[in-house]
CASP-like protein
Amino acid sequence: MAKVQRLISIVLRLAAAAAAAAAAIIMVTSHETTSFFGLEMEAKYSYTPSFIFFVVAFAVACVYSLLVVLVRPGSTASRLVLMSDVIIGMVLTGAVAATGALSEVGKNGNTHAGWLPICVQVHEYCNRVMGALIAGFVALVVYFLIIMYSLHELAEPLCSCHY
Amino acid sequence: MAKVQRLISIVLRLAAAAAAAAAAIIMVTSHETTSFFGLEMEAKYSYTPSFIFFVVAFAVACVYSLLVVLVRPGSTASRLVLMSDVIIGMVLTGAVAATGALSEVGKNGNTHAGWLPICVQVHEYCNRVMGALIAGFVALVVYFLIIMYSLHELAEPLCSCHY
């Protein structure tokens, strides 16, 4: 039973690492230059602070996920894993939400603020950001499952010895 | 000892509820109309989807925090509280991050996307959104403390009976 749990944990960690790596890489490589009424327009992730945060958050989550696979169950470090999982889960949520909010403005604009949509001009760039967002969302869902699974596992033995 | 823990938990929940209520109310009441080069400009939270999400998320967090105070420790419902705390924590992180990302664009603009800063024109509105963001951040920090405290409490007896 313990072996099955360990296997599920490793598979979920590797899936999270893969999705997080994909999210960071797709975002870093999102770049497009186009001309608009004779003006050259360049779009890249580093022009938006939230997208830089997205890349850093998912790169850290990828490395963290791979490191946690090496942690021996029952060790002192393993007791801190659930806490750091929750922190990583919250950071990834923040990165996805901030990127999602700005992507929505990029796609639809905001007429009240006078912000025009830019995805008509830099279509390819927007598609890549959307790809990064989807990969990031997958990593976030996997992290959510890891946290819920860990909380469930932690509550089970507690119930049998305390209630 | 159990009474002290219960008291700490209730104080944290009430603090979270108060901060969440403040965040939602300040955001809902943020509204300003100004004229800019003869054009009337109106700014209110409902013009931005992320700000609506912010209000809903913090209103739900406020009601949830008050309801959890009523849950009896050791009951079946109490076992689900930590899981729902983590979900609320993640939702609040998303709301703060999305609102923060858009507020940053509102304040500094984004020259590469051609989005001008609007806070020069609607200064009062921006100040209120910033106030909501600060109150929301306080609620988020309190939720983070609640989750970390609960995880610590959950790990303690487990250590004594399993390691």
Summary: The CA atoms of residues 14 and 59 of chain A lie 14 Å apart.
